[in-house]
From TrEMBL, chain A:
Residues 103-154 form the RNA polymerase sigma factor 70 region 4 type domain. Keywords: DNA-directed RNA polymerase, Sigma factor, Transcription, Transcription regulation. Residues 17-75 form the RNA polymerase sigma-70 region domain. Transmembrane segments: none annotated. This is DNA-directed RNA polymerase sigma-70 factor. It comes from the Bacteria. One of its GO terms (molecular function) is sigma factor activity. Belongs to the sigma-70 factor family. ECF subfamily. GO terms for cellular component: DNA-directed RNA polymerase complex.
UniProtKB/TrEMBL annotation, chain B:
This is Uncharacterized protein. The lineage of its organism: Bacteria, Pseudomonadati, Bacteroidota, Flavobacteriia, Flavobacteriales. Keywords: Membrane, Transmembrane, Transmembrane helix. The chain crosses the membrane at residues 43-60, 66-83, 121-139, 163-186.
Amino acid sequence: MSSDFYKTSILPFAGIIIKLCRAYTNSQEDFEDYYQEVCLQIWRSKDNFREESQWSTWVYRISLNVCLTLLKKKKNNVQHFVSDSITADETEDNYAFSDESLNLLYDAIRKLSEIDRAIIMLYLEEKSQKEIAEIIGTNPNNIGVRVKRIKMRLKKILDGKIN
Amino acid sequence: MERSIENIWKEGFLKSDALIAPKINNLYSQKSIHIIDKFKRMFKINLIAIVAFSFAFLIVSFIVGIPITGIIFFVTLSVLVIINKKLLNDLNKIDLGVSSSQYLKTFNQWIQKQIAINKKISKFLYPIIFISMVLGFWFKDAEGMPLGERLVGEILVGFPDTYLIFGVPVIGIVIALAIIGLLVLFGGRIYKWDLNIVYGRVFKKLEELMTDIESLRS
């Protein structure tokens, strides 16, 4: 990969990729693998970008689509989509931000379904319902209702944990 | 007062350690772990292996005197390779930059198409392999005459009442047809069973993702 391309076209949007990859992984090792894979796929797909959307929206689409369908070998050597909900044994190699509340929020987000994770991440990134619907490829009218449900679920999971 | 998730999100990412990009080295030379790339690799390896095997078998078949088997094998496997090469080209057309719904739908359509095509092929492939083996050995030279005719001659010595159709014992035809029938019946199932062992979880997950997205569309 050209380092110029990475510096000029990916790095300015690394925040989006990092936030998303963190939501679909439970360890630093997986996170780094996901981040690298997203960057690789952005580079490979760059010729398909037709400027019908903003570069950041397109980067978000690639990142999300990669995260939704990434295969990785788990310890038992069987291939899985590793974005499955977090389980007790997987929390052992959990990694953390310095902000404890953010860690708790991420843990809660990881307990959601893959699509709900995508929706809440886009919502927290202040994307409009229309933009979220465009990225996911669905009806914008249903996004608002789904966001409300997800927020209620997150509040329930986080209940009493954050002050 | 309880903080909103929006505030936790905003404030959490203001801290300096939250958004540090990992170092990436030799990214392009690294093996992709994405499912589509894995499928591409698997397809390429399979196709190369089939081509190599069909060539090798063709040569061996002439050496051991069963060229009919070798030729039928070669033609059948060549058709298999051509069809799957086209499927591989379709896989290259899947665009990651479209909406998740469209991307998952396109990918799922490709999977369903390749399963349906290869399932159909398997229904014919195993019987053709069996028939080619039978024909190959039937016409194999056995001291100046085809092995099949020599075998029938020996059967007729032991069982002179054996009923023949076009010079082949009926019992032999019945057994061969039964085997062909079983191979047609189970060929597709064997393929799907084999595929499910390796990618069953992936297919299930894909289905779940699509169902979830569909629920948002209605």
